[in-house]
Design brief:
Elements: H1 2-37, H2 53-63, H3 74-89, E1 101-103, E2 106-108, H4 118-126, H5 129-139, H6 143-174, H7 179-185, E3 189-190, E4 194-195, H8 198-201, H9 203-216, H10 228-231, H11 241-266, H12 277-280, H13 284-310, H14 318-348
Antiparallel strand pairs: 1-2, 3-4
Helix pairs in contact: 1-11, 1-13, 2-11, 3-5, 3-11, 5-6, 6-9, 6-14, 9-11, 11-13
């Protein structure tokens, strides 16, 4: 029992610590990437090449005076950022960064919580992210905050439907809910060179899912919940100091979680990138290391794609955002799901 508790604590520390620890790196990438795309320098004063700027930002948030406006609802105002962060972190418990491996005669699953329903758990918990935003908007007792929170909730509900149709289509295709089985189905090559990734089998579902995770994470061009030109700062307008920093962290963790799920379903998860198998040989340890490295590279490319889209596309109008979700993506998702079910049915019979 003690051994199981120790194993769980170690895995939890690694799987939660790595994403939280990577946030400063993502901030540097985002801010320098923004500078690169806009033909300016970006942060370049603190530390070599501006690499210590996130550390300066952390200290700024920690030592800034905490201001709690007199008109807020104190208890809910305080717990709203914590709800947002906890809900963002929880799906990390079921996302594996490598295949199960043997250690001292025992099979070790790299995820904290192994279950055949891991994919459903991750999305069910991610869907709760709107609660933290809604509580923050209501507790701030500010009309702009409330409008931002309502926008975020309506946006999440609208795009979760098309996102769900994409997930169900992939589960029908793979014939399993288990994340390891889904990744195993995508291991190997067609015709000796084309990876068996879900993207090449279901490009429609991949596009639906990709648009859905941008909307779920409130990233541009879907950041209507905090549209500066209309709502000042949206649902976190009344937040400052460490509470604002927690919301900031929750957004980036949520982005990493959704990127990980997208990669698991459509880009082979932790399956090796083409050419990596040449470095593995017969070593089981090397295989696990390469799987972790492959997953990190895919996540990094996905994060860069988020940054690229943010500084490339303009923000939608709210009516355009809702029309896209309900009148375009949802019918397309339902049609794609019906076609997928029919193809799988006739393939199996």
């Amino acid at each position: 029992m003690l051994e199981l508790i120790l194993e769980t604590l170690i895995k939890a520390a690694i799987i939660v610590g790595l994403p939280l620890g990577s946030i400063p790196i993502i901030l540097v990438v985002e801010r320098r990437g923004a500078g690169f795309m806009q033909k300016r320098l970006g942060p370049n004063r603190v530390g070599p090449f501006g690499l210590m700027q996130p550390l300066a930002d952390v200290f700024k948030f920690l030592f800034k005076e905490e201001v709690e406006p007199s008109h807020v609802r104190p208890f809910f105002y305080t717990i709203a950022p914590l709800i947002a962060l906890v809900v963002a972190v929880m799906p990390l418990a079921v996302i594996p960064v490598a295949a199960p491996f043997d250690f001292n005669g025992k099979t070790i699953f790299p995820e904290v919580f192994h279950t055949d329903l891991g994919i459903f758990f991750a999305f069910a918990v991610s869907a709760l992210g709107s609660y933290g935003i809604l509580v923050a908007g209501w507790a701030s007792n500010n009309k702009f905050s409330m409008l931002g929170a309502l926008r975020a909730c309506a946006q999440m509900v609208s795009y979760e439907l098309s996102l769900t149709t994409a997930i169900v289509a992939m589960i029908f295709l793979y014939g399993s809910n288990d994340i390891h089985s889904i990744v195993a189905e995508q291991t190997g090559y067609w015709f000796g060179f084309l990876p068996k990734w879900g993207f090449f089998v279901q490009p429609v579902a991949a596009v639906l899912f990709l648009v859905g995770i941008f909307a779920e994470s409130n990233r541009l061009p879907f950041d209507l919940a905090e549209g500066e030109s209309e709502l000042v700062a949206g649902y976190h307008i009344e937040y400052s100091s460490i509470k604002f920093a927690i919301f900031f962290m929750a957004e980036y963790v949520h982005m990493l979680v959704l990127s990980g799920l997208f990669i698991i379903l459509f880009f082979g998860g932790y399956s090796l990138l083409p050419g990596m198998e040449l470095l593995v040989g017969d070593s089981a340890l090397m295989l696990t290391i390469m799987q972790v490295l492959s997953f990190i590279i895919k996540i990094s490319l996905m994060v860069w794609f988020f940054v690229w889209v943010r500084w490339t596309l303009p923000r939608f109008r709210y009516d355009q955002l809702m029309m896209l979700g309900w009148e375009r993506l949802l019918p397309l998702g339902i049609f794609n799901l019906i076609i997928t079910v029919l193809v799988v049915h006739f393939r199996n019979h």
